[in-house]
Amino acid sequence: MDAVLLLIITIAVVALGLVATVAGLLVTRRRKPEPLPNTHTGVIVRPPEEAEAGAPPVEVSAPPATIEPEAPAAPALEKPEGTASRLVRLRQRLAGSQGGLGRGLLALLSRDRLDEDTWESIEDTLLTADVGVAPTQELVERLRTRLRVEGAHEDVRAVLREELLTLVDPTMDRRLHVSGLDGMPGVVLVVGVNGSGKTTTVGKISRILVAEDRKVVLGAADTFRAAAVEQLATWGERVGVDVVRGPEGTDPASVAFEAVKEGVDTDADTVIVDTAGRLQNKAGLMDELGKVKRVIEKQAPVTEVLLVLDATTGQNGLIQARVFSEVVDVTGIVLTKLDGSAKGGIVVQVQRELGVPVKLVGLGEGADDLAPFDAGAFVDALLG
Among residues 251, 240, 257, which one has the least CA distance to residue 203? Predict the structure, then answer.
């Protein structure tokens, strides 16, 4: 009996233990886990605004957002002034700046008595205006003959205009040869000493051609002056013209060659090549410019060689002209800075010296202050 009672008590104790264990497991499963410590740095945590708006969470693997920089706006191209309006404006400016020479001559020739002192004064006035000794003597002799034969009744102004026009020579071919043959581009080689306005003239000529709807390529072959290359590049950007350039010190002939090659490959109408203008070593300059021209003509013939001269340099300009005419076959002259008060006579002298016409004149620093030379308009401007 005692053994049976002991067995019953043992079974009851084991049953109670099992019930307690099962109850403990159930309680443990229903209990929520304790929150983990906050170790976030805020890099990928949504801002309160996004959380409130219900925006989707940022994925950890998503790359950081970047802001693309805006591409710089292309510079607006300038529209060059047309040739016709440029000529009108420049004639007016020339008349205002050069009229002193003509008025001085008219005042002397209108005297009641033309004695030797008066004719000497006329000669001095012409020489001061850089007309040159031989042209001055020729003009004075013709004026003396006409006024002596035709008498004082002749219109002095008309006589002077006719004789000045003959001196300037309106029969010269002043057209710019900027077109090539057989589909090739015209090639314009621009030469002149540094400081004469050569690179600026190249830029201004390109504006004239662009205004006439011609496709132009510029060659920055003055590689010894970084400033010249940059200056030409700026001109090209302003009117939308391609500029072929090379590093400072590059062989100028190679740059000229590549410029003409690009002109041929892109069906350009005209290629304008700027060249170096050092006169310290005449032989070196001759060799360099001669090489540039020879290399260019492996691609296309040179159709125009323009010599740029500063009109205010007088006799120095003529010395420069002689040097360059020995190097290359100059076909035309560009006179810059012709806004001096009494230096218009350089037109006559340089044409006589080289036997080639003045084709373009510059009367200021403006981008469109360059125009074709017109003998009649020039003489009228001289007379005021």
Answer: 240
